Amino acid sequence: MSTGLNRILSSALPSGDERVNVHPDVEAWRRHTVRLDRARLVENGIFGFDNLDPRAQSFVFLRWQLLNGFVRSGGRVIAVTSTRPGDGKTFITTNLAAALSRVRPTVLLDLDLRRPAVGWRFGLSAAAGIDDYLSGGADAWDVVQNVEDMNLGIVPVRVPQPQSPELLTVETLPQLLSALRGRSDDPICLIDTPPVLVVDDILLFAQHLDGVLLVVEEGKTRADEVREALRLMEAIPLVGTVLNRSIFSGRRRDFDQSYYYR
Fold it and tell me: In CATH, what is the architecture of 18-261?
């Protein structure tokens, strides 16, 4: 991989809206279907489902980069993290998952067990979550909430878990990731993880990841923080770095504007 970082502006972003069909043997994973409130999604900062929304275009391009690099080379399970809270990692993860689901099956897994936000952003009320599965209280297919008419499965956290390391080191997590890899519809699995400089949860399951995206915020994330985050995650292939809340022409954007791909 190149050591240089190239800035790619959103003015060259592609558009399009392709759908894929669900394979018959995946039906066991689709027991629970949810209908999302589109108005609430936009209110909560999720617009990646709509390729015509100008705010979604950066995620369309990020999707294109992932599919033509990381996924084409065999990557399927990718974690998204940041250095510190507030850098926008969940914003990036949820919108990227929405954009990916327009073109291929996608599973969004919330493993920020201490401070989960994925379920809230999508307006989900989970009867069972990934915390229940990891503790042995639910089956894998019972914690996946599938978005109606979309190829997106969301695995939220039902109850925040202060003692997350105890759940992340059990064998049920690698079993779940292995089962997702074995699905015939070949989904991409995005995992929202805690900031790596705050807690080291991502390191507890690093060996089961194909790569990691690091979210940084322009004007906030320091270079030494990025270096330390990369040092801690040196065992995980770095897919790229997403620059969030970038400034162009003196005006701050409220969405991801640039993508650096390594």
Answer: 3-Layer(aba) Sandwich (3.40)
